[in-house]
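cron nightly-structures :: item 1 of 1
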Amino acid sequence: MDRSGARRDHVDEMIEGWRAELPEAATVQLEIVKRLTRLKARVEQVTQAALSDSGLTYADFDVLATLRRAGSPYRLKPGQLAALSSLTTGGTSNILQRLEAAGLVEREPDPSDGRSSWVRLTPLGVERAEELAIATTKAHRELLGGVPEETARALADLLRDVLIALGDRPVR
């Protein structure tokens, strides 16, 4: 049990060590960062497992998913795609080359701007994006299945508050 009588986790043990050795390092901020880091690692592990048979990386899936949730005709400009998927434009370019070679996306010139283009999911890309979105959603549900619904909702809302406090805003 921790100081409040609640159950303990790995981070509690770490904080206890810092409290004994260097109390100024035993902060609530460290607890937040360490718990988020551990949760991120677990989420990445199950996400990669869900993607493993597809031959795609998480970044590849992120691009496909971003295009799919854009709605029909499932297309965005490369800059929009990078911003909405939290990738760099250079990283996005490399991913698009791989996805284009796999027949999952295609690029088409923007008739209203000769310097610009659109990136669009192909029918196979739509299918693959949907399959992988369902597979990763299932993996995340299984991972977090032991978390009571009200706790999950409260955590999602609290994390939104934290991200907004840190300056996170919608892209559009």
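cron nightly-structures :: done
The CA atoms of residues 139 and 145 lie 10 Å apart.
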